[in-house]
Amino acid sequence: MKTNSIPAAAEHSSTLPPPAVTLLPVAVLLWLAGAYLRIPILVAPPLAPYIADELALSQTLTGALTTLPILMLAIGAMPGSLAISRIGPRNTLALAILIMTIGSAARGMAPDTTLLMVAGAVMGLGIAMMQPALPALLPRWLAPHHMAMGAAIYMNGMLMGEFIGAGITLPVVMPLLGESWRATLIAWSLPALLVAAALFLPKRDLARPTRKVAWLPDWNNPLTLRIGLLLGVSSSLFFGFNAYMSNLLEQRGELDQLTDALFWFNFAQVVASLLMLKMARFWVGRKSPLIIMLILSLLGAVGAVLMPGLSGIISATFMSFTAGLLLILMVAVPPLLVSAAETGRLSAGNFLVGYTIAFIVPMIGGLVSDASGDIRHAFWVMIAYGVLVLPIAFNLKLERSS
């Protein structure tokens, strides 16, 4: 009996939240880790023309530079959950960042298409493992009344990472590196190693789990599927619009507006994440803000498809803003509803479902538009999916399990 009490005490002390004086460095670490959830993925679209030109990529393979990592976000969620259950969320996050860095940097050294795609898949696996590790780390680093803010901070980092990766790669980073896409990919990747090392500075949750916990998704828990399906709305709209925006504007004869459209589309999610830093404690864990943002994002998507010119770009930007709020509201839910030991498992199941949807729905939309010859049909497929799952939001029960 005496020997069993020691691990229990150690486990309890390792999960205590840090005192207030350490909250700032913890917030910085969460933000930096969040930023690297998206920077490696969204530096690829601006570099895609240069990569395609050198390696003679087809249109499909050029698109795969972005879509393959998204598919890996779904496939890699379960290895992330397994790692959390065996080595803990901090160690999992550090390992995942290492894998992501190796894959991301290797893209810059790939001599041919095959190795480029393999490196992209490895990078996507690392990012996929990072995603459930971050929410699983919150209950171990933060007090319960700080967890909503912690989720908002790392999601702000993620959405800022989208904007930074997509927005400053061509005008700032690439010119500093001799216009080399290879050097640019490597330069974006390597600083993540410093983030991985810094994760071990906070002196909480250093130990591995003292007992094995379940890691496969609990499909008997309705939140696994329901949150995942709703997460798929936000992700499919965001990634789908990013993927097909140029095609839509080209069909309208407005391709000259693409740069501005993508800038404001991605910047809107930065604004959304900043707003959530202020509103997280009021909105996270409540159903009404979630329903409102879901409806508004669908209305914005409809406006973007129906209205040409500036009105359409404004509607797309509004959709991105509300979809960003929806994303944060969904991702922040698991730590509030289940125990610390179950958070990684629920989050991994949500990401498995959500990013599978984010890959499949836009792909189906693309196939429909190819068959019809009208790119707007790709957007209607994504909107139809959102309408289809809207009743789930109304029936969602956000009560903490015992």
Please outline the helices and strands.
Layout: H1 2-14, H2 23-35, H3 39-42, H4 44-55, H5 59-75, H6 77-87, H7 89-107, H8 113-141, H9 147-167, H10 169-176, H11 181-189, H12 192-198, H13 222-252, H14 258-283, H15 287-306, H16 309-331, H17 334-337, H18 340-372, H19 376-395
Helix pairs in contact: 2-9, 4-5, 5-8, 5-18, 6-7, 6-8, 6-18, 7-8, 7-11, 7-12, 8-9, 8-18, 9-14, 13-14, 13-15, 13-16, 13-18, 13-19, 14-16, 15-16, 15-19, 18-19
Rounded radius of gyration (Å): 21 Å
* Measured distance between first and last alpha carbons: 26 Å
Total strands:
0
Question: How do the helices and strands follow one another from N- to C-terminus?
Answer: HHHHHHHHHHHHHHHHHHH
Shape: globular
Major beta sheet summary: none
Verbal overview:
With 402 residues, this protein is mainly alpha-helical. Helix content is 80%, strand content 0%. The longest helix has 33 residues, at 340-372.
Short description:
The protein is mainly α and 402 residues long.
Features:
402 residues, mainly alpha
